[in-house]
C-alpha cells in the first residue's frame, strides 16, 4: 500500500496515545484541504501490511489504539482491514476517518470496504466542507462530519472529553511537520514564517 507517513506515538489524533497511519492518495479533493500533498496516488512510499504490523508491535505497550486517515483509507481498505485486525488482536482500538459516507460504504458491494468497517471501532465520516467549517468539536473540521460508534470499544464520552491539539515536530534536517486538529486558519497564520512546513 501507499503510505504518506506513520507516527508511532501521537496524542493529537484521537484519545490516548495512538499509532497513526496517513495513507497516500485521495480523490475527494475537498476545497480548503490542508493536506493536498496526500492527494496523489503515486506519492508517498510503498509499505507492506507486515512492515506496518511490525512497527505497531514495537510500540504495543505504549499505544492504546491506531488511527487511520489520509488521504483516503477506504481506497486501500483491504490492506488496512488486515492491519486493523492485527491491531485488534493486540487489544488496540481502531479509529478510521473517511471522506465517504457510512451509507455509501455499508450499502456498496465492495468486500474490502466491508472488511475495514468490520475492523473499525469509531468511524468519522464525511468530506470536509469548507462552507460548514466548525472546529468546536474534537477531531473534525466541518459540521457535516459524523462520529459513528460501530463498537463500544471507544465510548462517546471519551470523544466528548477529548480536546483538539496540534503536535509540532522537527527532524534532523530541520524540516517541520504538524499534525492534529484545531483552528487551521490560526495555525497557518502562526506558521506562515516557517519555510517548508508540512501539515498532516
What secondary-structure arrangement, pairings included, does this model have?
Elements: E1 2-10, E2 18-23, E3 45-46, H1 49-58, E4 65-69, H2 77-89, E5 93-97, H3 102-107, H4 111-118, E6 122-125, E7 146-149, H5 156-161, E8 165-170, E9 176-181, H6 184-191, E10 198-199
Parallel strand pairs: 2-4, 4-5, 5-6, 9-10
Antiparallel strand pairs: 1-2, 1-3, 6-7, 8-9
Give a brief outline of the structure.
This protein has six helices and ten strands, in the order βββαβαβααββαββαβ. It is of the alpha/beta class. The model has no long low-confidence stretch (mean pLDDT 90).
Describe the structure.
- The chain is an alpha/beta fold.
- Helix content is 26%, strand content 24%.
- It contains six helices and ten strands.
- Helix 1 (49-58) runs parallel beside helix 2 (77-89) and helix 2 (77-89) packs parallel to helix 4 (111-118).
- The longest helix has 13 residues, at 77-89.
- It is globular.
- The two termini are 18 Å apart.
- The model has no long low-confidence stretch (mean pLDDT 90).
